[in-house]
Amino acid sequence: MFERFEPAARQAFFDARQEAQLAGQDKVRSEHLLLGLLREPGLAAELLIAVGLDPDSLRSRLPRGHHDVPAGLDADALSTLGIDLDAVRRATDAAFGPGALDLTPVPGRSSVRAADDTRQALSGAVRQAHAQGQREISSGHLLLGILDQKSNGALAILTATGTDIPALRADTKARLTAAA
Hints:
Layout: H1 7-22, E1 27-28, H2 30-39, H3 43-50, H4 55-60, H5 75-80, H6 85-96, E2 113-114, H7 116-131, H8 139-147, H9 153-160, H10 165-179
Parallel strand pairs: 1-2
Helix pairs in contact: 1-2, 2-8, 2-9, 3-10, 7-8, 8-10
C-alpha cells in the first residue's frame, strides 16, 4: 500500500501507529497521523511547526484510551509469584518509554488498524498527488488528505490550537505546486 509514499510520509504513518498505541487507542486516527507528520522531517512538519505546533503540545491534546494488559500478563497470577505487574510496567516505562510493555508483540494479538478518517486521509493524499501529476505521495499530500475532510479529530485539535485551517490548506497546496 505504501510503495508510492516517500520515506518520510511512510514513516509518519508508522509513527502515527506508535502514537496511537502509546495513547492506548485501538485505531490510528487522523490526530495520530497529524502527530506522525509533525515527527518526521518534511513539508508537513515545516508547515505545522510554522503554525506553532510541536509534538509534545499536540500529544497532550490526544484522546487517551487505556492500555490493556497484553495476553499472557495476568496481574493476579503474577502477584502469586511475588511480581507486581504495576511495578514492572512503571520500570519498563521508565527504561523504554511510556507504553513500552504494551508495544511488545504478542502472538494472536491484532495490531492497531487505521480508523476511517485515517483511511480517508490516505486516499485523499493519493488523489492530491495524482491531481498534481506527482508519482510519489509526500507528507504534504498526507496533510492535505487530513485538511480536506469535513470533520476529524485532527481538524478539531487544529481548531482548538487556533490554527487557520483554510490558510494552512492554501499554503500546503501552494508549496506542493511549487515543488512539482
